[in-house]
Write a structure and sequence with these properties.
The complex is a heterodimer of chains A (162) and B (103). Chain A has 162 residues and is mostly helical. Chain A has helices at residues 2-23, 27-47, 51-76, 89-109, 123-132, 138-159. Helices cover 75% and strands 0% of the residues of chain B. In chain B, helix 1 packs antiparallel against helix 2 and helix 2 (29-53) packs antiparallel against helix 3 (60-90). The termini of chain B are far apart. The chains are: A mainly alpha (162), B mainly alpha (103). At the A-B interface, helix 1, helix 2, helix 3, helix 4 and helix 5 of A face helix 1, helix 2 and helix 3 of B.
């Protein structure tokens, strides 16, 4: 019962935050609305009993990416121009609505093969075993830091003063 | 009424559609990047919902979500750095005016 109430509150908060990103005219307020959406999504992870990912969501998205976006907004001084739409607003709306309708139709038509087992209560140790244990994801886990390092160096090279 | 897999999938689809609209219809490059982050978050919700309801003991969806978060962080850093570099050269981040590579 508590999970049901939490889901609906968090779902409404996430959708309102997402709509704020798209609809608010002030870019800075849109970024704050994005933070609200990220926090609601972290709460949704908790309702899905993904505790480790909820913490990662708050650390990476709310802590790092949101700060990065707000910093970029401040440094580009583009806030006063607002967040105008381009000429493709109506086609984009139609494409998004069509996508929503088609995927919702597919979701309701599929008969999902649900498992009745409860998930493991703290997921952290099971996740570590899945990532690092036998037959796990050790190679992708080693490639991910290389990607992050390349991204860091790329970002530094791109914004460096010539 | 308890919450089923469909609720999470529909929520993820709604968030993805909002992000898709923002990515297609906005002019500011930063707002487009924010919309892309929204779409990645929506995919994460779907991944974790699948992991929770279909293979609760395997946690494969959560492992995928971790890699999506890694790639999203790299994408945000490089994307915002490119935006800053373009702003420094051209004094604008309006994507309708950045048409250097447009054929």
């Amino acid at each position: 019962m508590g999970v049901t109430i939490a889901f609906w509150i968090l779902a409404v908060a996430a959708i309102l935050g997402a709509l704020g990103v798209v609809l608010l005219r002030n870019v800075f307020r849109a970024a704050l609305s994005l933070v609200l959406c990220f926090l609601a999504v972290a709460g949704l992870y908790v309702t899905l009993s993904a505790d480790f990912l909820a913490a990662v969501q708050i650390l990476v998205y709310v802590g790092a990416i949101a700060v990065l976006i707000i910093l970029a907004i401040m440094l580009t001084r583009d806030v006063q121009r607002g967040s105008p739409g381009n000429r493709l607003q109506l086609p984009a709306f139609i494409v998004a609505a069509l996508f929503l309708a088609i995927v919702a139709f597919a979701i309701f038509q599929t008969s999902w093969q649900l498992a009745e087992l409860p998930p493991p209560a703290p997921t952290t140790s099971d996740l570590a075993f899945r990532l690092l244990g036998d037959g796990g994801f050790i190679l992708p886990l080693e490639i991910a830091p290389v990607l992050l390092l390349a991204a860091i160096i790329g970002a530094i090279v791109l914004v460096r003063e010539k | 009424m308890s919450i089923a897999l469909e609720h999470y999938l529909i929520l993820a689809t709604v968030l993805f559609s909002i992000g898709l609209y923002g990515a297609l219809a906005k002019r500011s490059a930063i707002v487009i990047l924010m919309s892309i982050e929204l779409m990645l978050n929506a995919v994460n919700i779907a991944m974790i919902a699948f992991s929770r309801y279909i293979v609760p003991l395997m946690l494969t969806g959560q492992v995928f979500a971790i890699f999506i978060i890694v790639v999203a962080a790299a994408e945000a850093a490089v994307g915002l750095a490119i935006t800053m570099a373009i702003y420094r050269r051209r004094e604008t981040i309006d994507t309708t005016e950045i048409n250097l590579m447009k054929w």
